[in-house]
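Much of what follows relies on a compact textual record of a protein's fold. A complete example follows; check for yourself that the lines match position by position.
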Amino acid sequence: MRRLEIHVARLLSIGLGVGALAIGPGADAAAGSSASTPASVQALPGGVAIAEGSTISLSNGVTISRWAHANTAAVVRRGASSQAQAVGRLHFLTEDGQAEVYMALRETWVAQTGVIWIDVTLPERPNGVTGWVQASALGPLHVVGGRLVVSRTLFRATLYNRAGIAVWSARVGIGQASLPTPVGHFYVREKLRAIGSPEYGPYAIGTSAYASPALSEWPGGGIIGIHGTDQPQLIPGDPSHGCVRMRNADITRLWHMIAIGTPVDIT
């Protein structure tokens, strides 16, 4: 029961409304009425019940998203079980030496083992890999709202707040036809100041997207970044090796507005 109390306290601390969960009897009532509560359902303190194997959404990628750093270099598995196939491993740092960020998608509580698992996105090739880790392998969940949408056809990036209102927008440059900016749902992993060359401008944002083939303008190659440029005359257009370029004034403003963990949708 202590594990369950900690679980509920953590959910409440990250602002998950009880409307997203099943409502059931309080802990005291549940203790005295086991006959009316199926064995596959556990009544948690605060009047919340979670059925065995049920899943709670932690991020919808639009109005609210949650992310965490790694506590341990845990194995990431295809399912919420220590016996499930391994699909990767958590790591502590990005390629640029910043604390790695994992988007928390869903959470489940496995009644048989009493273990809480979280489904996370892995920032690696191929893009879009997800897997489950025990909740203890992650640090506290951080909450962000809104998203950044990059339209490759319009050559435009737009930042939306949690209410869906556009609060910033700018023209951008994207990858060449032979080195395209990938389409998909990604997120902000890191925010960097000037990264070694005027061609990147004064600020850069590292995302969870990777280029394919393994080439981009990002130092070391591969990561799809959002950064400034020393060739603003090429924007809008498709001059890059996969990264999203924008004029220096635009990246400066976006860098100060966008938060770590913000979803980045490239369409």
User: Anything to note?
Assistant: Residues 1-39, 42-49 have pLDDT under 50 and may be disordered. Residues 2-13 form the longest helix (12 residues). The domain at 52-144 is CATH 2.30.30.40 (SH3 type barrels.).
